[in-house]
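Here comes just one.
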Amino acid sequence: MKGWNGQYKGQAQHSGVFAWMCSYQLEGEPEKKEKGTFVLIR
């Protein structure tokens, strides 16, 4: 399994807590929204 390498646009990101949000819609279904947090530890 391949994971995130801790970089964004070629720059290493600082350790910390980050929030994410995602909106998506599957064919024939209503739009769904998900959100959460993750901790980046170096």
The chain has one domain: 7-40. The CA atoms of residues 28 and 34 lie 18 Å apart.
